[in-house]
Amino acid sequence: MKLFELIIEDEELDGVFAMSFVSEPAIEAHGMFFHKDEVTFKEIKEEGLFVAPILIPNKKILRVDGMGEPYEVFFSPQTVKKLSQLYLKKKYQDAVTIEHEDQVENITMVESWIKESKLQDKSKLYGIDVPVGSWIGTFKIDNEEVKEQFRNGDISAVSIEGLFEHELIKASKEELFNIEEQEAEYILSKIRALIKRDSRYKSKQRVDMESYSDYPDGVKNNAKRGIELNENQNNKCATPTGKIRARQLSKGEPISLATIKRMYSYLSRAETYYDPNKTTECGTISYLLWGGKAALGWSRNKLRELGELEENEVSITSTYPGEVSKKEDDR
Q1: CB 31 within 8 A of CB 196
Q2: Separation of alpha carbons 134 and 82, rounded Å
Q3: pLDDT tens digits, residue range 196-253?
Q4: Alpha carbon of residue 111 to chain centroid
Q5: Beta sheet of 135-141, edge-to-edge order
Q6: ∠ CA(76), CA(80), CA(85), 5° rounding?
Q7: How do the domains of the chain map onto residue ranges?
């Protein structure tokens, strides 16, 4: 079975952007909810608090790719710490869903920390036993419906929602041989795309970064729509990179091969957060800023045309890193 490390390649695009309260966390660690009827710790003086592990370093998590094949992923301690910092830096403290579906309001992460000591960390006060390096959070819940779900035991843990790059750590010999062939072809195709014959130079060659502007009007219109929706939300959605990309696409400006690759990578991973009926949510707005589904189709075809994408390549991000695998019998 393949093993991937989930990494942050681009801080503007990658990272955790929401928490989801769930009943079965992929990290197999539950939290503790405190309310006025069951305050058993004298350190807890405020009801409606939920304390729970968010990520556990080096914990292998089973995933299933788009073809139904299982694989495993994990986060390093360094990445877990970086994710906890970026989450606060990007001000996602109130982004919460239930079971990776409906977003809920009046819930805020009020405390976030990395467990630094096995014996002295305050997680011991809450009966939470996780390894050093784990990310733990405290949430203030002022939503009565969600409180009731905790009281009934319908939810009891935290799962993350985010985007990450996959770095292959382990594969079978047959898988590695195939990957090496693909990497060789990738390097050759990249050289072909960068080197362009030009009669103005004696050597007949020069290095020239190709750019492309043959994307359809649907891409431009989606970017314009994303800009409009984001303005309606006081421009709070998307990163500076996403906003710049939207301006480029809306004007039909040429974009580089590197940008097309990034576009395809982001749109493939973020498609699950796009809902055309939820035009006030940042997931939908950010997706449109990058050109939406029209840009996903165009970027995929363009990369295939340039020899940068295998015809039958399958996305391996079909489920959240923090979501329980859909293929339970492969555990």
Answers
A1: no
A2: 12
A3: 444 444 444 444 456 888 999 999 999 999 999 999 988 877 677 788 889 889 999 8
A4: 22
A5: 32-34, 49-55, 135-141, 107-114
A6: 145
A7: 3-168, 210-325
